[in-house]
Amino acid sequence: MIDTLIQIIKEAGEILKKGYYTNKEITFKGKKDLVTQYDIAVENFLKEKFSSTFKEFNIIAEESDNSDLEFCDSIIIDPIDGTTNFVNQVPHCAISVGVYKNKKPYIGIVYNPILDELYQAKIGCGAFCNNEPLKVTSNKQFKESLIATGFPYTSATNKNDLAFVIRNLESVLPQCQDVRRLGSASIDLCMVARGTYDGYYEINLKAWDVAAGMIILEEAGGTVTNMNNETYNIFGKECIVATNGLIHKELLSYLS
Ligand code: LIP
Predict the structure, then answer these.
(1) Residues whose CB is less than 8 angstroms from the CB of residue 147 and which lie 6 or more positions away in sequence, other chains included
(2) How far, in Å, from the CA of 26 to the mean position of ligand 1?
């Protein structure tokens, strides 16, 4: 299954790449939440190919109405994770595809066609970027850790969400090496997996932002939980905390 998925995702990457270098029609789903005709085109392409090839799976996708779908044997798609980057030609945007069987993680693929980086993992088989094995850092020192985060779109309209961002930046930033915000949750998780970042946290993510990246990170030896150090629910409105495992408890201790 994984080889066919990769082949289809690489074809979809050509649509993303074409859009990246041309003018886009932008519409707003929310005050900050953008969508372009390329998000729709990539999603439609993937849905058509996946539904004819993998008939036993239903497809949950960012730009679709998923209300009558039950999560079980599911392919979860974010056609362009990092749409604001895509619109502004910041080269951190990716097609994210997570495959779940009986609600359990099975395959994760995150493809950034601009940098031509394809991250992949299948449960029990390790994680790879362009076929090179991925491994989280072995850093135990929080003060030497590079931590990534994200700012939820809802911080424009919800004071509590904005307060969360500021409060936690105030508590994490002085304790670590530095903080990054690249604007694509799926890539952020892969960058913890490849050992670029030591940890990452963010609130209000959707299942399609994290479904694939979580599998890749866990297969690279990382740890993913919610803020209470419990199993992260991809459909819950929780804070995701994703690390190399070694700094996990310390990062959790700074978050509130
Ligand atoms: C985005 C993320 C980004 C996060 C935003 C949003 P989109 O996904 O990956 O990092 O901060 O809240 O969810 O909308 O570009 O697919």
Answers:
(1) 172, 176, 177, 178, 179, 180, 197, 198, 199, 200, 201, 251
(2) 16
